[in-house]
Design brief:
The chain has 7 helices and 13 strands. By secondary structure, the chain is an alpha/beta fold. The strands form 3 sheets. Strands 1-2-3-4-5-6-7 form a 7-stranded mixed β-sheet, covered by helices on one side. Strands 8-9-10-13 form a 4-stranded mixed β-sheet, with no helix packed on it. Strands 11-12 form a two-stranded antiparallel sheet. The longest helix is centred in the middle third of the chain and has 15 residues. The chain is globular, with a radius of gyration of 16 Å. InterPro entries: Metallo-B-lactamas (IPR001279), NDM-1-like (IPR050855), RibonucZ/Hydroxyglut_hydro (IPR036866). It holds the Pfam family Lactamase_B. It comes from Streptomyces siderophoricus. This is MBL fold metallo-hydrolase.
Length: 244
């Protein structure tokens, strides 16, 4: 199965075993990237750009939804290859830069074996060590992104990490929720993302996103894209009881 899938007129998903990446075509023939995959993913991202007829120097922006290694893991390599600017939520920026220690998730009993398995898989796969990267712009709730094909609202969604952000594109109904929202493989069920520093905050952030108008497609980093009846799928979710 081809890991590069078109989501909309301007958005493609590059699927990875852990942590999907999304590429967004910009009006100036450049691209933006939402998250970067685990360390070592840069060659696959650059190959996806080439398949879309682009070049490394046309990657303008890297937007990190949060500081975890499966999202910021290849940012440093991609900045070196492309010169792209890096944007991240302000509270997470010190963790992305490496100037502060990332807070540990508070794992539930149900989350602990999953976390152990993922860490073991990373070790078995020889995932390279995480490299930190400079943050060029710190994002806050209510900010907008420049240069995209339509208006982009930045929403603060703390809980998974202190400075997690989501991107909402009301005109096309697209939502990039970060790890606050996960989905089943076929995208017909939404769940609270696991491994949160504050479960209570994460649930509140999930509910905030679920209440948004103008959401038709949810581009989750883990699971299948929610394409059909997205608002109903989010409304039917039970984040309060997930991962108990």
């Amino acid at each position: 199965m081809d890991p590069l899938t078109r989501i909309s007129r301007t958005v493609w998903q590059l699927a990875f075993p852990v942590g999907h990446v999304h590429l967004v075509a910009l009006p100036d023939d450049g691209f933006a990237l939402v998250d970067t995959g685990v360390p070592g993913s840069a060659p696959a991202v650059l190959d996806a750009l080439a398949r879309l007829g682009s070049h490394p120097d046309r990657l303008r922006q890297i937007v990190l939804t949060h500081c975890h290694a499966d999202h910021m893991g290849s940012a440093a390599d991609l900045v070196e290859a492309t010169g792209a600017e890096v944007l991240a939520g302000a509270p997470d920026a010190p963790y992305v830069r490496g100037t502060a220690a990332e807070p540990a998730a508070v794992l539930t009993a149900a989350e602990r074996p999953l976390h152990e398995r993922i860490m073991a898989d990373f070790a078995a796969a020889g995932v390279p060590p995480l490299r930190h990267v400079a943050v060029d712009r710190e994002l806050r709730d209510g900010d907008t992104l420049d240069g995209w094909p339509e208006p982009v609202r930045v929403l603060a969604v703390p809980g998974h990490t202190p400075g997690g952000i989501a991107l909402h594109l009301p005109a096309s109904g697209l939502l990039f929720p970060g790890d606050v929202i996960g989905a089943s493989p076929d995208g017909d069920r939404a769940v609270l993302g696991p491994f949160n520093v504050s479960r209570e905050q994460a649930v509140a952030s999930f509910r905030r996103l679920a209440a948004l108008d103008d959401v038709g497609t949810v581009c989750v980093p883990h699971g299948g894209t929610i394409r059909e009846n997205a608002r109903a799928v989010l409304a039917a979710a039970t984040p309060e009881t997930d991962w108990r």
